[in-house]
Automatic annotation (TrEMBL):
Pfam families, per the entry: Amino_oxidase
Broad class of where this protein is predominantly found: mitochondrion
Molecular function via GO: flavin adenine dinucleotide binding; monoamine oxidase activity; primary methylamine oxidase activity
Domain of life: Eukaryota
Protein's recorded name: Amine oxidase
Transmembrane feature ranges: 106-127
Annotated keywords: FAD, Flavoprotein, Membrane, Oxidoreductase, Transmembrane, Transmembrane helix
EC id: 1.4.3.-
GO CC terms, sorted: mitochondrial outer membrane
Membrane topology listed for this record: Single-pass type IV membrane protein
SUPFAM superfamilies listed in its UniProt record: FAD/NAD(P)-binding domain
Cofactor: FAD
Amino acid sequence: VHYMDKIWSQDTYVGGGYTCYYPPGVLSKYGPAIRESIGGCIFLAGTETALQWTGYMSGAVEAGERAAREVLYSCGKISSSDVYVEEPEFVEVPIQPLEQSLLERFIPSIGFLLALFAAIIAFALFFSSYQGQWRQNF
C-alpha cells in the first residue's frame, strides 16, 4: 500500500478549482465505472470518483475513505455492506438547501424569447400596415 500526503495550501502554484464538467447523464451512467478497482489490486480515489461533492475537497476525502474501505473489503477485514456508507452530515456546518429566486424559477428559455420577439414584431408590422386604414374610417 502506497500513501502520499500533501498540504496543498503550502503549494504556491495551487489556486484550487473545480473538476471537469461532464454533459448531463455522464456521471449517472459511467460514474460507477470510474470507481471500480482495476484487477482487484488498484483502487481509484479522487474527487472525480466521489459519490457526493464531486470536484470539491469533501468529495476527495469521501472518495479516499471509500477506496480505503474497498481495500479493507478485498483483504477480508470488513463486509461488503460496510464499503459504501453514507457520510454523516457535519453538524457545525449544516448543508443549506439551494433555493432558486423567483427569476431563476421562471426565467424563459431562448426559444421562448425568440418566439415572443417574433410575435411582437409580427403584431407591430400588422398593426402598422392597417393603421392608415383605421384613421380613414374615423
